[in-house]
Design brief:
alpha/beta; 55% helix
Length: 147
């Protein structure tokens, strides 16, 4: 699978692991990243991932996450096509930054957009997207159950 992984997934391991949901999402993210390392899934990165990550206030986290660009099959650059699509998605109720991520994932021909943001998952389900939007736990369960 070609995966576009939202920055909130990359940040999940740094969150408070005493919360059950966060712990489960962290485990799923680690398992998915392991699949990327082993070549079972492919990572799609984008300019907006690098842009958003560069603003992270904690250098250790920012630097750790930034290394993943080196594992990406492709890095999607900003284009008029992304700008136009992001504008459409924003008009349909997707927050601006999330709209740019979704548009980048579509242009990068990702199969799945993984996010820990419930609002994005719910709103995306109502849209006509060129990919599926899922929580990493849901993707991991699907992957495990299908071998």
């Amino acid at each position: 699978m070609r995966l576009y992984i939202d920055l909130n997934c990359f940040n999940r391991p740094f969150d408070d692991q005493r919360q059950e949901r966060i712990r489960r999402e962290t485990e799923a993210v680690f398992a998915i990243l392991d699949r990327i390392i082993k070549g079972k899934d492919t990572l799609i990165w984008s300019w907006v991932m690098s842009f958003e990550n560069a603003k992270h206030p904690k250098p250790d986290r920012r630097d750790e996450i930034a290394l993943w660009v080196n594992r990406a099959e492709s890095v999607i650059a900003l284009s008029a096509r992304i700008e136009d699509r992001a504008r459409e998605l924003k008009e349909q109720g997707i927050p601006a930054l999330d709209a740019v991520h979704l548009a980048s994932a579509e242009v990068g021909e990702a199969d799945l957009f993984l996010t820990c943001d419930d609002t994005v998952v719910k709103r995306a389900a109502r849209l006509r997207l060129g990919l599926r939007v899922m929580n990493p736990v849901a993707y991991w369960k699907e992957t495990v159950s299908h071998g």
